[in-house]
């Protein structure tokens, strides 16, 4: 990989970090947002849920609409909107305006990620594409791991506005770096909307979407309640819970690096083995969750698998529709966000009906169902040998 390409991928990774920071960092400062706007914490939570829901809806549509536009210009537009959204959030005292300042960037978020994943994949040979994409995912994981504690620290020691300023500064730095270092990237062969949408006619695309939705439901249906699980089942202190959450996130980054290597080496085997391996992790979690040390070890292992899972999801959908990479990446973003929403809702049901310990069941059920769709895709695709080509 040339020095220029390495620099571009590094900027894309920091860009992914800045954007995910803006999305996820708010989780760590919800109590401060509630105080600032004089609303309940559950109402402040709308800043998280509405962002995710907007991304799920705009995931396939926005990359499609922007598929013919110069990639550099499209990315600068998205980063500029994120900076403006952050600035509005710093200065507004109106909660409705704060929501609008979150939803508008969320509409444009998929444009940045689809361009980033496609550019990373195109910067190297086809065989090494998963490795390049996994580097961009490191930014996503770092945004989730570091965004929450950094935002929380800034809000608790200084103010809510300083947290939002931190988000704005990161996005502004990436905007300048993209402006200065990225060459103009006009789309050479523009695919018609019809050609891109035609991938939805293929059964392999739908089998991949359902498998990815279920895989993400398996991970986030349980992870969304990790803090609650550690508090009520493992019965540990708030400080130790914070440590465990950072441990999980740090392990995610390791998982991204491991996934890049595994998918480059043998993609199909990696995808098929993954649900079974994560299932074993969940079964061990279920029986050892009340013990602090085993729980810490399993949180680390689980975090690595979660990182691998994210890369698998992106590969599984884009390899099903290689002829429309931007649209496929949009479908990936939509599928994982829907998977998170469904998994979290079902996980909540298991907790309210059976108790916190049984949230593991949403993970196991989702994994069992995902295996069906993964094997179906492999079976349908084996005669033509199209897979991973």
Structural commentary:
This protein has 389 residues and is an all-alpha fold. It is 82% helix and 0% strand. It is built from 15 helices and no strands. It has helices at residues 3-24, 30-37, 41-44, 46-65, 71-91, 95-122, 129-157, 160-181, 193-197, 203-223, 226-234, 238-288, 292-318, 325-354, 360-381. The longest helix has 51 residues, at 238-288. It is globular, with a radius of gyration of 20 Å. The chain starts with a helix and ends in an 8-residue tail after the last helix.
Largest sheet: none
Measured as a percent range, the helix fraction is over 70%
Number of strands: 0
Strand content range: under 5%
**Structural shape:** globular
Tally of helical runs: 15
Low-confidence stretches: 384-389
List SSEs in N-to-C order: HHHHHHHHHHHHHHH
- Over all CA atoms, what is the radius of gyration? 20 Å
Mean of residue pLDDT values: 86
Keywords summarizing the entry:
mainly alpha, 389 residues, 15 helices, disordered C terminus
What's the short version?
With 389 residues, this protein is mostly helical. 82% of the residues lie in helices and 0% in strands.
Helix/strand layout:
Elements: H1 3-24, H2 30-37, H3 41-44, H4 46-65, H5 71-91, H6 95-122, H7 129-157, H8 160-181, H9 193-197, H10 203-223, H11 226-234, H12 238-288, H13 292-318, H14 325-354, H15 360-381
Helix pairs in contact: 1-6, 1-7, 1-8, 4-6, 4-14, 5-6, 5-8, 6-7, 6-14, 7-8, 7-12, 7-13, 10-13, 10-14, 10-15, 11-12, 12-13, 12-15, 13-14, 14-15
């Amino acid at each position: 990989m040339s020095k220029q390409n390495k620099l571009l991928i590094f900027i894309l990774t920091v860009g992914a970090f800045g954007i995910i920071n803006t999305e996820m960092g708010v989780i760590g400062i919800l109590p401060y947002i509630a105080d600032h706007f004089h609303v309940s914490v559950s109402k402040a939570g709308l800043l998280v849920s509405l962002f995710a829901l907007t991304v799920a809806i705009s995931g396939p549509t926005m990359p499609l609409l922007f598929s013919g536009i110069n990639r550099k210009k499209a990315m600068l537009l998205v980063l500029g909107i994120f900076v403006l959204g952050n600035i509005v959030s710093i200065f507004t005292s109106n909660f409705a305006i704060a929501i609008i300042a979150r939803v508008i960037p969320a509409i444009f978020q998929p444009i940045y990620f689809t361009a980033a994943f496609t550019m990373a994949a195109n910067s190297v040979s086809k065989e090494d594409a998963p490795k390049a994409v996994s580097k961009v995912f490191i930014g996503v994981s770092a945004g989730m791991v570091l965004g929450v504690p950094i935002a929380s620290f800034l809000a608790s020691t200084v103010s809510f506005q300083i947290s939002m300023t931190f988000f704005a500064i990161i996005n502004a730095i990436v905007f300048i770096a993209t402006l200065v270092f990225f060459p103009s990237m006009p789309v050479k062969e523009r695919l018609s909307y019809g050609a891109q949408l035609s991938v939805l006619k293929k059964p392999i695309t739908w089998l991949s979407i359902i498998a990815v939705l279920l895989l993400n439901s398996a991970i986030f249906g349980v992870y969304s309640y990790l803090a609650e699980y550690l508090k009520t089942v493992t019965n540990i202190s708030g400080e130790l819970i914070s440590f465990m959450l950072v441990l999980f996130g740090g392990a995610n980054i390791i998982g991204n690096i491991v996934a890049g290597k595994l998918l480059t080496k043998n993609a199909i085997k990696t995808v098929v083995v993954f649900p079974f391996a994560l299932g074993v992790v969940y079964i061990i979690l279920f029986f050892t969750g009340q013990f602090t040390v085993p729980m810490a070890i399993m949180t680390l292992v689980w975090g690595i698998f979660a990182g691998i899972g994210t890369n698998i999801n992106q590969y599984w959908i884009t390899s099903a529709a290689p002829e429309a990479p931007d649209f496929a990446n949009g479908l990936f973003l939509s599928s994982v966000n829907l998977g998170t929403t469904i998994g979290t809702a079902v996980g909540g049901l298991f907790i309210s009906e059976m108790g916190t310990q049984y949230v593991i069941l949403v993970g196991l059920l989702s994994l069992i169902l995902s295996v069906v769709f993964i094997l179906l895709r492999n079976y349908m695709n084996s005669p033509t040998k199209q897979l991973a080509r």
